[in-house]
Amino acid sequence: MTLTGQRVEAGRTGLSFRLDGAGFGYGNTTVLRDVALDVAPGEVMVVVGASGSGKSTLLRALAGLLAAREGRVLAGEEPVTGPGAERAMVFQDDGLLPWRTVRRNVELPLAIRKVSRRERALAATEWIERVGLTEAAERLPRELSGGMRQRVQLARALVGAPRAVLMDEPFGALDAQTRADMQRLLLDVLRDTSATVVFVTHDVDEALLLADRVAVLGRTGVKTVLETRGGPREALRERILKEL
Amino acid sequence: MTGGSAVRHRRSQGRSVSGGLAVRHRRVEGRSVLRWVTRVGCLVAAAGLWQVLTATDAHLWLRFDRLPGPGEVAARFATQLTTRLYYLDLLQSLIRILTGFALAAVAGITVGVLIARSRSAGDVLLPLLEAVRPIPAIALVPIAILLFPTDEQGIVFITFTAAFFPVMVSTRHAVRALPTLWEDAVRTLGGSRRHVLWNVVLPGTLPGVFGGLSVGMGVAWICVISAEMISGEFGVGYRTWHAYTIVDYPGVIVGMVTIGALGWLTSSVVELVGRRVTRWLPRGEGSGA
Ligand SMILES: Nc1ncnc2c1ncn2[C@@H]1O[C@H](COP(=O)(O)OP(=O)(O)OP(=O)(O)O)[C@@H](O)[C@H]1O
Ligand SMILES: [Mg+2]
Predict the structure, then answer these.
(1) Is A4 close to ligand 1, i.e. is its CB under 6 Å away?
(2) CB contact under 8 A, A112 and B191
(3) Residues B77 and B9 in one domain
(4) Does B189 sit within 8 Å of A141, measured CB to CB?
(5) In CA terms, which of A60, B4, B198, B270 is 20 to 30 Å from B28?
(6) Residue range A207-226: average pLDDT?
(7) What's the CATH superfamily of A3-96+165-243?
(8) What is the mean pLDDT of chain A?
(9) Could you read off the pLDDT of A227-239 as tens digits, one per residue?
(10) What is the DSSP string of A206-240?
(11) A21 Cα: distance to centroid of ligand 1 (angstroms)
């Protein structure tokens, strides 16, 4: 870790989340009602659900990009009122600013925080190396493959040492091989942080691989929260598939 | 040359090298020479036609007997180029258009962003702007003469008004069309409204803004020349009209060519800068040739 990383991360723990009777929607449509969910500090919570079940909606609510219509959304002890740097988000695709190079995209959260140029460059270099993109640091997003773009998003989300990382099907658009590489990279990177992770996917195997716990999203609200630690994988798999 | 230069050329673009591509590259080079021959040939043919029509005093439905021929115009051009007045006029027109255009660019982008991003700013400004927009800038000449102490300021004002609207309108549309994803990304990284403005809105709208700037430069030339013809004491537009009133037809055509060249030059600069600052746009390779 660089000096920046240490200073920012010192004394930081993962952020917990609590949804309590929370409801969300757009215009006249209600997407989620009466959601109750607890995410513990530092855990990897994977949310699975069918397409259109409201996974992105839930994640946007945790990020503070969407306000709850009813109930409470808490991050730590505080109600979520808007987005903030302690809750970084990784989008499914195209979340990078296309006019910034890889390096300048990764530096962005530090630039926003007015970290000095030198420290910014150091931290960015380190993260770019960790995600294996040193060679591509000066390229624009359009010159990268889908997998490389997601690596940049991962580096950009983590460079600012957030207390939570919210990931919305980040590997959904990748081919099987790249997806497996990315999952390995993610597990590797997460080992060194204390950040809480809320990871959305519709792929049950991905959920089982990454999760400490899995939440299954039914038509409205979170149906079940299943522990994946211990116990036979196959049985869990069956149970998740049944809940979906 | 062949192999070596083709390879080096492609390496500079960071591409891998293969024999098949080198052959294709050479073929493309040949084709582009042919295209240049076509382009130049077409211009030469047009000049030739002009020469024939004027030399024979052709009297078809259009009458070419009083129109000066290319030789006459070229000779006139050569003498004009040696006079100080020619360059003074040129400079005068350029100062007018660049001042008006620069003011229009700044004001157009600012107002366009403001209207698109703030509802209250839209409520205040839009009715006013929509009321003025349908009036062709050149129709404002009488007002400009009444309002401004000097003709100079009036002409700049006309030019400004002409270029302002295309820039403002395209900026507004570009801001509206901006994907919310980029804004969301910056906000979840801790960015404030100001960060979103500088890091997303301004760079993200540049392609649209430059569309507006290109159009704006075009209408700015129309208006500066027309305004000079009406109320100038210097300038290419004034000189061209003056040449007409003293029956100096070669002078008129020299003026026209000068205006065309200046217009082309300024548009090219806008185009070039636009391409430079929007290099991040996904573009097919070899487009824009
Ligand atoms: N901006 C919006 N305006 C109106 N309705 C929306 C909007 N975004 C999502 N919805 C609706 O909300 C519902 C849930 O959408 P959401 O994107 O949260 O689903 P999802 O579980 O993420 O699906 P996917 O797996 O396809 O990404 C859908 O029915 C969708 O039509
Ligand atoms: Mg989604």
Answers:
(1) no
(2) yes
(3) no
(4) no
(5) B270
(6) 84
(7) P-loop containing nucleotide triphosphate hydrolases (3.40.50.300)
(8) 88
(9) 777 677 788 888 8
(10) HHHHH-SEEEEE-SSSEEEEEE-SSS-HHHHHHHH
(11) 19
